[in-house]
Amino acid sequence: MLAMMIGFFKGLWQYRTEVKKQHKWIVRYTAQKNYALNPSWMMSTNLEIWLSEMEAIFGKRYCPCFEPSGNAKLDKQMMCPCEFIEDEIKEYGTCHCALFGSADLDKAGWKASSKRLMSEYQVPLNLKDGVLDTRGMPLDPRRNLPIPDAMHQLKSTLNSYSGNTLKMIVEREQEVINLEKIASYRGYSFAQEAKADHFEVTLQFDGNAAKGTNSSCGS
Ligand code: SF4
Questions:
Q1: What CATH number does residue 84 fall under?
Q2: In b/e form, how buried is each residue of 137-150, taking b as 16+ CB within 10 angstroms?
Q3: Global pTM?
Q4: Whose CA is closest to 70, among 58, 56, 55, 88?
Q5: I need a labelling partner for 35 at 20 to 30 A (CA). Which of 17, 95, 125, 176 fits?
Q6: 166 vs 127, 188, 206, CA distance in Å?
Q7: What 3-state DSSP class applies to 131?
């Protein structure tokens, strides 16, 4: 809990200017669409921090719960507010990340959607002897992307990882591209090797493991 609070305030300080900008459009959009904003200040602010970080790393305001897919059409659909919002509000009462919800969603409804989100992301990771195998996670039915994806698995790992080097096994080339962007943004050394049916990425932190926000959707 203490680590989470420290991470939150660190992220808020790092992205303080961007978070203000995110908050402005989010409030305006919420009113225009007659939605509600997540009533938990910490949750909605965390989402504004993660949106700011997605924009800083990938150049566009992608959904903070999914790394870019490399499919131009899907990536456009995933820019926040995404094209899945109405459909997901119908299903869960909120969008996937529980940033926006229906205007009449009660406290129990917000709580249930946050719980759903946490159950998707707080899963055991396949980390052994400094090797994180990110493959085999369930796919989101609308985006056909893994939850949690390689980026979120990296963030979760770094919350408690003490090693200086982490090897990651990923399935798709786009995940390698995304990890390289994250490494470049955070100052990690990066190397990759293509194997027959997967890719191996090696990240070396050189004391920078805690750089950026390692809290993520569902935490
Ligand atoms: S799921 Fe919510 S936070 Fe994520 S892109 Fe869609 S509207 Fe934005």
A1: 3.90.460
A2: beebebbebbbbbb
A3: 0.93
A4: 58
A5: 17
A6: 10, 10, 11
A7: strand
Residues constituting the chain: 219
Could you give the number of structural domains in the chain? 2
- Model confidence pLDDT, tens digit, residues 153-192: 999 999 889 899 999 999 999 999 999 999 999 999 999 9
Q: Which amino acid is at 155?
A: K
Taking Cα atoms as reference points, which of 10, 18, 11 lies closest to residue 61? 18
For the domain that residue 191 is a member of, what is the CATH number?
Answer: 3.30.110.40
* First-residue to last-residue Cα distance in the chain: 10
Which ligand 1 atom minimizes the distance to the CA of 62? Answer: 5
Ligand 1 centroid to Cα of residue 163, in Å, is 33
Helix spans in 93-218 (H): 107-121, 150-158, 173-186
- In whole angstroms, give the CA distance from residue 139 to residue 146: 4
Measured CA to CA, the distance from residue 92 to residue 105 in angstroms comes to 10
DSSP string, 112-128: HHHHHHHHHH----EEE
Atom 1 of ligand 1: nearest residue by CA position: 96
Q: Is residue 209 part of a domain?
A: no
Tokens of residue 136, six digits: 């085999």
> Number of H helices and number of E strands within the chain?
8, 7
Which residue type sits at 17?
T
Cα of 185 to ligand 1 centre, how many Å? Answer: 23
